[in-house]
Specification:
alpha+beta, Ubiquitin-like (UB roll), nine-stranded mixed beta sheet, two-stranded antiparallel sheet, 11 helices
Length: about 325
């Protein structure tokens, strides 16, 4: 039995199986198979699309592995990070954490800058589970500090869920600083001065770049000094757009003009300005002398070398000189 040569030359195309993931909606066990057909989007974009489809806030959700309960890195490619996994879209909360330095002065809060960090984590996590890995990034032991609500001295337990904290900002201080406030009869601490920290909705408007760190993501806000330097830099760049560059006429030196046998510097006129454009006050009009055309002398006999050559050739027999004139 002979095999057709066309079947050997053109084998049937290999069929690529579509990639998919299992989406678990809400707290129920209902599962929906979602096809991953766009290899260009990230996990963050895919999560926002699914949140919009489910009627959730796309700026307050994240994708979590339903089996391990670990947050999936939103910066990864969706088609690779979500393939054949059970994914759950859960709500998250964004709040600010202010870390007071050891030399912080409560009498003059503006004298010592603080660190303000925006934190985003899912509502089911505890305060200890969120703050412990965050403070370890800044070499701070969570067991040696006190966490209170900003503006008060109300401490926060480790077991309280982030969902109960909501969008209220937190203040992290040392135990000695907390004792100083309580023994001094004070009942509050200063609140963060940054408007983004007091209004988490501004974080979405400013499009802050959060860095994923385990189950939480954080973004450190720039200090007032760094923000002022950035503003001055942008202001200087915008001003340079309106500065006119010096032309060639400006860089040229002023040429002196002879007036009555003396060399006096004259004012330079603009490029392209003729005599009819007028003169400056107190300046005599300068008239350029007309130059005579250069006449080229084409007569060869007026050349001394040619005359000498003709004199010697006249004595050579058989040579006849012809005058071209």
């Amino acid at each position: 039995m002979s095999v057709a040569p066309s079947s050997l030359r053109h084998p049937p195309p290999h069929r690529v199986e579509p990639k998919h993931c299992r989406l678990m909606t809400g707290d129920t066990c209902s599962t929906e198979v979602v096809e991953l057909n766009d290899p260009t989007i990230s996990v963050r974009q895919w999560t926002q699309n699914m949140a919009t489809m489910l009627g959730m806030d796309k700026n307050a959700t994240e994708a979590v592995d339903a089996e391990t309960c670990n947050t999936i890195d939103p910066a990864r490619q969706a088609i690779d990070a979500l393939q054949s996994r059970s994914v759950r879209i859960v709500p998250v909360v964004t709040f600010a954490v202010e870390i007071l330095p050891p030399n912080y002065s409560f009498k003059n809060p503006a004298s010592t800058p603080t660190k303000i960090i925006m934190v985003r984590a899912r509502q089911s996590l505890s305060a200890g589970g969120v703050l412990r890995p965050l403070l370890s990034k800044y070499s701070i032991d969570y067991n040696t500090v006190t966490v209170v609500f900003s503006g008060t001295l109300e401490t926060i337990r480790n077991s309280v869920s982030i969902g109960n904290i909501g969008t209220r900002s937190l203040t992290v201080m040392s135990q000695s600083q907390y004792n100083e406030r309580t023994h001094g009869g004070k009942k509050d601490v200063p609140t963060p001065r940054d408007p983004i920290a007091t209004s988490p909705n501004l974080a979405a408007e400013h499009n802050l770049q959060f860095h994923q760190h385990g189950d939480i993501s954080y973004c450190e806000l720039p200090s007032e000094a760094d923000r002022l330097k950035h503003t001055q830099k942008e202001h200087s760049i915008s001003l340079m757009k309106f500065v006119r560059k010096a032309s060639a006429a400006v860089t040229n030196k002023e040429e002196p003009v002879r007036v009555g046998g003396q060399r006096t510097p004259s004012r330079r006129k603009s490029v392209g300005q003729g005599t009819s454009a007028g003169v400056y006050c107190g300046e005599e009009p300068h008239v350029e002398p007309t130059k005579e055309p250069i006449r080229k002398r084409l007569s060869l006999f007026k050349n001394a070398n040619f005359c000498q050559l003709s004199f010697f050739l006249a004595y050579i027999p058989g040579v006849v000189l012809v005058n071209p004139q």
